[in-house]
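> forwarded from #structure-qc
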């Protein structure tokens, strides 16, 4: 007998009654998930302080302006909030109809990275330089596209009441559409983003109710793919060195293991309450590379201590907890799948980012959601929050 992830059949039955319109008493603002929204906002604002501390003395990066990265991080947060509002206003159901267009745009953008328009930043050829100091990392938005295109396919017949679970043909089509952008991103190579996308696909399949054979097959294919990628030499030398340093931290402490060793020193020196904001010796001494982006958690560990770093974990936990509630309470499979994909994305990327600073995960060049400096990442995570809020706001209500 084919085994499947357990979901209630009646939960995703088509809504038979008319939808009740929102009144002034039951407005959009009242239906927003405020614990999630406020937690994400506090994370972004706290990230602004950490980014400021990490960059205010790095004249080679801030062009002589100690407030350069602070203002840009706040600007990115503001734009992200605007994108969230726009996403809520459009609604996840409206975006459902635009998924084919969004998917096509995403493919074009990541293909453009492989042309002369692409640029290499921090060892990854994953960027498009727009000009004026601005750049775009299309792979961040591909994460959203993969979630939406798979949700559209896997939920179509279930939400229409024609099926209880996605059939094998539908699952196969969804996996093919997800594999295409992942393969292109792998050519950059951007291994960190591909890892996140793989976890997203796994989370989406689990939430869709697809046969567990697909889940097990995907895990097996991932292991086989990792072996082939390594055997065929598709990874750059710096990526191989990162995994080598993870496997053996003492391999080259002054070379490939330098980032992780310095990160652990910074976090370990913070103690319970930290050295105080702007007072971290590792941070002010610029010992930790890429501290405003991939290693932003080291600033929190050193300057805010266990308490401050723990606060970041609690806030991320609140975002994930509220997202899980939204996924559980929605009455349409499409909304459940979208929420589950975002949960898988946020959870794995947060674990990987924090884990690599502690030496329990390999360095993969992934930002900490809402906290790390970076426009593309900030825009993408706030669009994801907008999708989650839209699912909550537009929950079907029968008369």
């Amino acid at each position: 007998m084919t085994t499947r992830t357990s979901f209630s059949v009646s939960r995703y039955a088509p809504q038979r009654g008319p939808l009740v319109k929102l009144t002034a008493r039951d407005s959009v603002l009242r239906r927003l998930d405020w614990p999630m929204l406020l937690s994400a906002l506090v994370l972004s604002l706290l990230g602004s302080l950490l980014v400021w501390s990490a960059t205010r003395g790095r004249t080679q990066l801030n062009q002589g302006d100690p407030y350069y990265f602070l203002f840009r991080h706040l600007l990115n947060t503001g734009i992200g909030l605007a994108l969230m509002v726009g996403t809520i206003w459009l609604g996840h159901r409206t975006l459902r109809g635009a998924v084919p267009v969004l998917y096509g745009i995403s493919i074009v953008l990541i293909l453009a990275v492989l042309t002369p328009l692409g640029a290499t930043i921090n060892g990854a050829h994953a960027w498009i330089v727009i000009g004026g100091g601005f750049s775009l990392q299309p792979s961040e938005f591909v994460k959203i596209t993969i979630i939406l295109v798979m949700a559209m396919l896997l939920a179509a017949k279930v939400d229409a009441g024609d099926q209880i679970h996605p059939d094998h043909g539908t699952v196969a089509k969804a996996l093919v559409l997800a594999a295409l952008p992942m393969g292109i991103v792998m050519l950059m190579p951007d291994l960190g983003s591909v890892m996140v996308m793989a976890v997203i696909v796994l989370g989406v399949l689990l939430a869709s109710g697809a046969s567990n054979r697909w889940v097990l097959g995907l895990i097996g294919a991932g292991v086989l793919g990792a072996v082939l990628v390594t055997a065929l030499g598709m990874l750059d030398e710096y990526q191989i060195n990162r995994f080598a340093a993870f496997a053996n931290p003492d391999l080259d402490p002054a070379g490939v293991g330098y980032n992780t060793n310095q990160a652990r020193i910074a976090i370990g020196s913070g103690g319970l309450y930290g050295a105080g904001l702007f007072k971290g010796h590792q941070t002010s001494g610029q010992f930790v590379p890429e501290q405003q982006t991939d290693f932003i958690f080291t600033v929190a560990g050193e300057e805010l201590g266990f308490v401050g770093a723990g606060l970041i974990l609690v806030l991320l936990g609140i975002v994930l907890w509220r997202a899980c509630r939204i996924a559980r309470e929605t009455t349409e499979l499409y909304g459940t799948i979208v929420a589950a994909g975002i949960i898988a994305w946020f959870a794995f990327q947060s674990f990987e980012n924090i884990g690599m600073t502690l030496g329990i995960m390999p360095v993969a060049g992934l930002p900490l959601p809402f906290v790390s400096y970076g426009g593309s990442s900030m825009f993408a995570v706030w669009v994801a929050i907008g999708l989650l809020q839209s699912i909550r706001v537009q929950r079907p209500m029968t008369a």
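QC bot note: The two ends are 39 Å apart (CA to CA). The first strand starts at residue 118 and ends at 121.
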